[in-house]
Amino acid sequence: MTNDSSNRQLWHIQHFGKGYKIKNAMHSVYLSAPNSKVGSVVETSTRPTMWNIMRTHDGFAIQYGEENGVIDLHYGRPEWASVLYMVPLDSCKWSGRRWCFVRKSDDVGGEIPETVEDQVGHLRNQIALNHAELAVRDRQIIELQREIQMLQKNCPSETSTPNTDSMGNNAR
Fold first, then answer.
1. Which segments carry the region annotation Disordered (predicted)?
2. Per residue in 109-138, pLDDT tens?
3. What are the DSSP calls for the chain, one per residue?
């Protein structure tokens, strides 16, 4: 794409997990937020955030994953670089929280759309990494247990056992 200002607010909506990722056509960065907490600033990042597109009575709301927050254009300002932030889902009645989409093409921003197989492969890789990390921790635990046993054998116990009778009662 050319470095034309008309592409500045052109965004590609791409399937991503159970929702969508939103990629800027001009800068190849994604719409991103750290969480859905009210007041969290929506920015751009090289790492995508999963969004849901929800139809409202007059447009669409862009929801953070499956959580409570939706994107709000601060005071509905039309100026370039106006801040976007997260607001509660039940506040979609305000126009600054409703979005309109225009279909320009089937272009997905130079990326191959993610398939279910891609998602399954990614999850399998994550599971394998988690299993490897658990195995390392298991080995560390075993080593620490051995070290504790060695220390217990090498250091005689200085605590005396209480004088108890056959019932376990203190005989003193």
1. 153-172
2. 566 666 677 778 778 888 988 899 999 999
3. ----GGGTT-EEEEEETTEEEEEETTT--EEE-S---TTPEEEEESS---EEEEEETTEEEEEETTSSEEEEEGGG--STT--EEEEEGGGTTSGGG-B------S--TT-PPPPHHHHHHHHHHHHHHHHHHHHHHHHHHHHHHHHHHHHHHHS---PPPP-B-TTS-B--
